[in-house]
Task: inverse folding
């Protein structure tokens, strides 16, 4: 059920020369309520992705905050991506913002 | 002395969930030191195998799956969805972590090194195969094999599926390929960017022929000897547990 003031946002973002990130967000008042990230990328350890999705909850949908958070995720988990760079997560999430276009 | 790896042909052609369970049980056993380094070959009947991060809702055309009798399962490794049928040969390599072939915990290196056996095997059969980063084997720009892998449970794991004589028309129907991905590759459909070993050689090659080629390719590339073996009791028991708790469940296969 969608709550009042909640918007569903989505973006498919292809990392240059790499893999696809598909972002589905619930957003309210400029903040992420919940985030689902899927795609054909590689990330090890694999069970780190739900951690990133959880960290994104209640974070402002703004580049600066997202960059800091994604950096913190990669540092904290020592996760290794292939076909996607940390910055691609930021770009994919921002591409879901109204008025932005995914590449 | 030449290193020996175990070679297993354990497969459940009509049970893709059990195939996936065995696929995970082997690297777990290898990492725990309960099984030697292993190469497995196997087949699935009509099945979509999703990467572990993919959304079934977004990637799968469920109507086409129903019409064609295609099952959907999810694997434990990342990467993209692949379509398996009897014309598709799957191989998996499990090496204990720290093996000199892949000394660093670097997934791109895993794909490069552990694709070499398949590339060499295909070349030996006359296919102009080349490894194409990130995780493909291509023939003149067309994909003939995709791979995925992980470094987990103390194991370096790599698996790939080789399109030997697959039905590319079904492949094109059961998977939804996002426009953003097609546009990036400047091609219009799945069928036009993939090929099969049979089409490349223009003769009626079987998955058995390709399996034999890849066994030779692996032995020559890595200077190892593959010795036929079976799964241990412990591996079978792990596989059964994984079947019951994970791979036979729609919560694992479809809910992402």
Result:
């Amino acid at each position: 059920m969608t709550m009042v003031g909640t918007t569903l946002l989505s973006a498919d973002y292809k990392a240059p020369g790499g893999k696809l990130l598909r972002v589905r967000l619930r957003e309210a008042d400029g903040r992420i309520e919940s985030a689902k990230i899927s795609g054909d990328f590689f990330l090890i350890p694999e069970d780190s992705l739900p951690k990133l999705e959880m960290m994104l909850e209640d974070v402002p949908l703004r580049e600066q905050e997202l960059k800091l958070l994604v950096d913190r995720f990669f540092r904290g988990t020592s996760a290794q991506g292939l076909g996607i760079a940390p910055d691609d997560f930021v770009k994919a999430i921002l591409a879901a913002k109204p008025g932005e276009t995914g590449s | 002395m030449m290193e020996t790896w175990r070679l297993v042909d354990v497969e459940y052609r009509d049970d893709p969930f059990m195939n996936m369970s065995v696929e995970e049980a082997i690297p777990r056993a290898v990492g725990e030191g309960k099984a030697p380094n292993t190469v497995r070959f196997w087949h699935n009947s009509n099945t979509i195998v999703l990467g572990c991060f993919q959304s079934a809702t977004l990637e799968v055309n469920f109507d086409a799956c129903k019409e064609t009798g295609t099952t959907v399962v999810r694997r434990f490794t990342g990467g993209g969805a692949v379509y398996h049928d009897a014309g598709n040969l799957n191989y998996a390599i499990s090496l204990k972590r720290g093996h000199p072939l892949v000394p660093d915990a670097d997934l791109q290196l895993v794909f490069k090194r552990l694709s070499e056996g398949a590339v060499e095997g295909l070349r030996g059969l006359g296919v102009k195969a080349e490894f194409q980063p990130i995780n493909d084997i291509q023939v003149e720009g067309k994909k003939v094999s995709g791979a995925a892998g992980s470094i987990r449970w103390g194991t370096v794991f790599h698996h790939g599926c080789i399109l030997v004589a697959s039905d590319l028309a079904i492949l094109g129907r059961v998977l939804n390929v996002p426009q953003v991905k097609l546009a990036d590759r400047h091609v219009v459909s799945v069928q036009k960017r993939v090929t099969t070993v049979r089409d490349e050689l223009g003769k009626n090659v079987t998955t058995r022929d390709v399996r034999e080629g890849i066994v030779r390719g692996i032995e020559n590339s890595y200077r190892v000897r593959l010795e036929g073996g079976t799964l241990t009791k412990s591996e079978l028991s792990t596989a059964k547990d994984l079947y019951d708790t994970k791979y036979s469940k729609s919560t694992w296969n479809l809910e992402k």
Remarks:
- Chain A has a mean pLDDT of 93.
- Helices of chain A lie at 49-55, 63-77, 86-95.
- Chain A touches chain B through 25 residues (CB under 8 Å).
- Chain A has three helices and five strands.
